[in-house]
Design brief:
CATH superfamily of the largest domain: SGNH hydrolase
Number of domains: 2
Shape: globular
Number of helices: 11
Helix content: 40-55%
Radius of gyration: 20 Å
CATH topology of the largest domain: Rossmann fold
Oligomer: single chain
Amino acid sequence: MAEAAFECLLRHIVFCRPLLHNRRGMHQLFLFILLTLPVAAMTAAAGPASSSAAVSATEDCGRIFQRKSVDSSCRQLKAIYHEPGSFSRAFGPAFITGASVSDDWNGVKSPGRKVLESMGARFTKGAYPWASSDEILDLIKEKPPAAGTKTLIAIDLFFWDPELGEEAACKPGYVDSVIHELRKYSSRLILAKIPVLLAQGDADCVSLINEELEESCVAGNHCYLAPEPDFGGGANPARYFQADRLHLSDAGSSLAAESICSTFLRMPSR
């Protein structure tokens, strides 16, 4: 278990490299080290542990640390890019696309818009309610984002594909082809899985799209997958949704915005 604790420490130092850019972030990382080292020492003194216990320790550590990091991601992002215009120079101009949530459904600002506005970034929007990813791609071709767009945010791009019965979207290789097309318009992409809690239509199609997103939306492909917010957690999960129990409420959008902030923290600034 000691080895697991040290492995967790090393893994999250890499994860939290952006924290080293500012004093508050360094304090957070220092506190984490102080909490981790005593655990490692005590478990080492207790003798060898089973491999399952070591795995459990690493997973527990990861859950605790990442949850804390995601909860304060937007504050960390603002602390790092505190100079006026610094965030926009690194990640702007940006483009928001996707379906209804990205289109500020029912007056609720999308998670991407909340992040970009709070960071003072230049951005444009081209989102289309109730549209499949294929339809959205066609519409982007007709009205593309400005040349030189650095970041494209499309967290609900694939949401309606399983419900609308898009056969192409439910076949292997489709997600990779979409990422390839989107990269024509932006140097970096931020995408998200279809939330299982909200998934519509063919469950097998949802699983395939989400699995392919994990495989294809990787840093080497200039694509970053935003963590799925815990919409089912808390004492009142209904507060995260509008009356239709499908579109995000302001609280839900803010929760998803934290996931986008945590994704920006993992992205290179140039």
